[in-house]
Structure formats: structure tokens, C-alpha cells
Amino acid sequence: MADAERDDGRSEARAIFASAAALVRELAEEGVSGFEPLPALAPFEPRAAPASTGDGRPVAAPSRMRPAPAAAPGQSRSEPSTAAALPPSLPTAMPALPPRARAGGHASLDVVRSALGDCRRCGLCEGRQNIVFGDGNPEAQILFVGEGPGEQEDRTGLPFVGRAGELLTQMIEKGMGIPRSDVYICNIVKCRPPGNRNPLPPEVSACRPFLDGQIEAIAPKVIVTLGKPAASLLLGREISITRVRGTWQTYRDIPLMPTLHPAYVLRQYTPENRRAVWQDLQAALERSRA
Ligand code: URA
User: Is pTM, for the whole model, over 0.90?
Assistant: First the structure.
């Protein structure tokens, strides 16, 4: 391995530990006094209807489906040619977050959101209008993970509300036959990369504890990754999305189904791609109900 690569790995590890330490400090400030290691997530139990938005905003506004705004012409990401937004060395141990049962149900999702705060941990904060934390049912059985907010998402603070979002919504509502508000949707980075470029490794690393916190808090039965970067990140290796999509993987004991990113499907609107996503989502739905 070249010196530069070795050094990159160390800087990355330092950035990850610094970000984990900052998160732990912030959680302590939130009044969280105990941390437990997270070797495996709690087994899923059917849960009551959610009482909060799931994006960390006040409980008064229930989780709901929002109308998708008009198409955003500039919003698209490339795939499968997308360079994976993988840090050179991926951590396997994430900082421990509070157990979901602490204050009943989904409290810990709100804790994760408040730990994120008005985040300035990476350069993406400079150009953002809104942090796009996530949206949906905090107790969802299916969690979708995309790459990063686009223009419409940055403007509204909600994930997948542009053209790709419209397609994702159709895939969920028409393809899977469930309301979008039943699932939870988030991204690997919570702020829009300028010009919709791929998020850079330090940006992905800075956001990683919060994605892990969301997964821990929601404890979904199934994770569906949208596109190569999300699948590569959670699987800890750079994958070929065309090879891996449609095959069951695992992330911390949770079944993970990688599928194509809706922005890619929009650009390559072929019967094959549409069928592939349809099959992947059917498989995810079936598994979530098993
Ligand atoms: N693409 C993504 O990966 N995430 C979004 O929220 C929107 C578009």
C-alpha cells in the first residue's frame, strides 16, 4: 500500500473518531447518561402507530406523505458509473447510541436528530439551505437509504421529493402497495453536495454516526439501499450495483436489499431496470412481512 493511501486511512480514522467523540459529547449534553455497545439490533416487534414525524421535528406534526414538487431538472446522480463515496478505510465499529427502548418507542430517533443539531461537521454545511435528516415512520419495518439530498430536498428539508423522489414514491405506493408514510427514508449524507456531486469520504464519515443512529433507532426489519454509494457504504466494500442488486445482504444482522437508485432508473427508463427494481422491492416487502 502506498504511503499516501496509508496516511489517508489514518486521517479518515481520526476524522471518524473525532466525529464519534463529538457525538458522544453531544448525547451527554442531551442528558443521555448510559451507552451500551450495539453488537446486534433489537428484534423487531410490531409497534403502535407513530406519534412523531420521524425527522426530529415536534411530535405535533404527524408523519405524513407530502406532495412531490415539480421536477428538478438538475437533480440526478450517475449510476452505475458513480464513484462510490466510500472512505478509504471503513470502520466496522460505530459509536454506541442510546438503546431505542430508553424512553419508549422512537425516542432515540429524536435524540439522534438533536445530536446532529445545526451540524457544521463538514463542508457541506456551507452551501445547504436545510439539513435533510429523514422522513417517515420512526417505527418503519422498511428503511430506504439514498445518497444525499438534491436541490428540492435541500429547499424543503425532506428526502426524495424531486423527480427521483416522485419515482421512489410511485415505487413504494404503486409497486409495493403501501403508503410512503409507512416507510422511513433517509440518505447517507444529510446536506446537499454542491451541484449534486457525490459526497466525499470525509462528508460521508462525518454523517455516518447519524445514519447508524437512525438505523439503530428505527430498527427496521429490512433496509433497502438505493444506488451504489449507499450499498457500498453499508456493506463496507465497493460493490457493482448491477451485480449485487436483487441479492440479499446483511447490515448488522438486518437483511439488506440493494436496488437501483431511482435517478438512474429515470435516466435509463428501460423495462429491464423497472422490472429489476420492482422485483427487489417485492422481495423487500415480503421479507419485511415474514
Ligand atoms: N437522491 C438521493 O439520493 N436522495 C434524495 O433525497 C434525493 C435524491
Answer: no
